[in-house]
Amino acid sequence: MRTLGNIIWIITGGLVTALGWVLAGLIFYITIVGIPLGRQCFKFASLTLAPFGKEITYGGGAPSLIANIIWLVLIGLWEALAYLVLGGLWCITIVGIPFGLQCFKLAKLSLLPFGAKVLN
Questions:
Q1: Confidence (pLDDT) at 74
Q2: Residues of the chain with pLDDT > 90: what percent?
Q3: Which residues contact 15 (CB under 8 A, 6 or more apart)?
Q4: Which of 11, 64, 68, 71 lies in disulfide reach of 115, CB 3.0 to 4.6 Å?
Q5: What is the DSSP letter of 92?
Q6: For residue 119, which phi and psi values (nearest 5 degrees)?
């Protein structure tokens, strides 16, 4: 299911989304201040390319908390809402439920990406 799910995910928009995250990461990397945001964009790119079979662990300390608050205000809230709506739409059909669950995983990560690690 993992391989088949990732192939269907890539065909239905995962590749385009991952390329968008890579482009955003490269833009953030132009400035020194944007490098931490760029690293998070690359984390999202790897996860949105093939989310099936990957797990996310959350951790970090005070620096991650401060960065997560800034991320949440600037990007995270809107991104999480978009993934929640998309996940809800996927979950309308029985076949789409696994894809909806992956969108919910991305929604949670989009709220608190700093300090989180994507595990294979």
A1: 84
A2: 42
A3: 49
A4: 64
A5: T
A6: -110, 140
Token pair of 94, please? 């029985």
Per-residue pLDDT for 60 more than 80? no
Q: Where are the alpha helices (DSSP H) in the chain?
A: 2-9, 15-29, 35-49, 62-71, 77-90, 97-111
Q: What is the DSSP string of 59-79?
A: ---HHHHHHHHHHIIIIIHHH
Partner residues linked to 118 by β-bridges: 56
Q: What pTM was computed for the model?
A: 0.85
Give 37's Cβ-side CA count (13 Å radius): 18
Cα end-to-end distance, the chain, whole Å: 15
